[in-house]
Amino acid sequence: MSEYVALIPAAGVGARAQLKLAKQFNIVGKKTIIEFAVDPFLKDEKCKTVYVVVNEDTDAWEALPISQHNKIKTCFGASSRMLSVLNGLQAIKEDEDKSILVAVHDAARPCLDLKDLLGLMEKARDEIKEDGQGCYLSYQPSESVNLIKDEKVQESLDRNDVWLSATPQVFCLEDLLSALIKATDEEKVFTDEVSAMLHFFKKEISIFPCNKTNIKVTKKEDLETVEQYLKLAGRI
């Protein structure tokens, strides 16, 4: 289990960001967001293959030189993130053993720190031993956290008990594939892999604390933020 594969869902159009292009294909510095997102996996020698899931009608991906990298395989997505991940897992299944670890990482998270990735994968190799177990990057909020309903505060939460989910999220291929197939059969929709695995397996899923700069671009103004983070990291 020393080697693993990465899965990058990049078929979304990013409507919330209100950008002309899907957010992952917007340029920050001299590279696109997706190039920054994929880069740590290309640098990690233990990452065997990077599967990038894109829309069938997306020319933006094929126009990038990185799409021809010998470590990258392209497959086609679907109407939702969950179904795109499922398509990617099916492609991985054709190439790999069912026990290989899969690290699913958002194409719109360009600030993943290589050290966080290496630490996460080391922990994942040590801890993912039973069906349904997993490991993912997470960080705690700096602000106070309240539970809201109808724009009214219902409860103030202890922020020491709150962890925000980031990616990569790492599971065995067989387990994650099983969970997403069940979700599809039952017409359930999950926005990330942790929630799907927790629902169907209810096994231990561990966090690996990561840098808070590992944010996801969801709005137009996030582009300026990630540009500053990438500059501070010396990546642009």
Textual characterization of the structure:
The longest helix is centred in the middle third of the chain and has 15 residues, at 81-95. The chain has helices at 33-43, 59-62, 81-95, 114-127, 173-185, 193-200, 222-232; strands at 4-9, 27-28, 31-32, 47-54, 72-76, 101-104, 134-139, 145-149, 152-157, 164-172, 205-209. The two termini are 33 Å apart. The chain is globular, with a radius of gyration of 17 Å. It has one domain (4-232): Spore Coat Polysaccharide Biosynthesis Protein SpsA, Chain A, CATH 3.90.550.10. It is an alpha/beta fold and 236 residues long.
CATH architecture group name: Alpha-Beta Complex
- The largest sheet has its strands arranged as 5-4-1-6-10-7-11
Low-pLDDT residue intervals, each spanning 5 or more residues: none
Report the major sheet: 7 strands, mixed
Q: What proportion of the residues is helical, as a percent range?
A: 25-40%
- The name of the CATH superfamily reads Spore Coat Polysaccharide Biosynthesis Protein SpsA, Chain A
Strand coverage percent? 15-25%
List keywords for this structure.
alpha/beta, seven-stranded mixed beta sheet, Spore Coat Polysaccharide Biosynthesis Protein SpsA, Chain A, single chain, 236 residues, 11 strands, two-stranded antiparallel sheet
